[in-house]
Amino acid sequence: MFATHLRRRVTALTVLALVVLGASQLVATSSGAGIPVRYTVQPGDTLWSIASAQYGGDPRDAIATIEGANRLASDTVYAGDVLLLPSA
Known about the structure:
Blueprint: H1 2-28, E1 37-40, H2 47-54, H3 59-70, E2 82-85
C-alpha cells in the first residue's frame, strides 16, 4: 500500500518537473521583445532607409514599429537624432 502511494507521488512529481522544465524552455527561447538598439540618424537617413537597412520585410511595418517605440509625431528625422530600434 505504502509502495503504491510512494510510486504515485514520485510519478506525479516527475511529471510536474517535466512540465515546469518544458515551460521554462519555451520562455527561454521566446523571440519576444529583446533589448532595443540605439541608432544615431546619419545625414541623408530617412525612416524608410533605416527600416530597410535594419529590418527585413515590408519597411512600412518597421517604420510603424520605430515610430511607436520613439513616440514620433511625424515621420521626419534629423541627423543626430537617437532612435530606439526594437528587435524585429
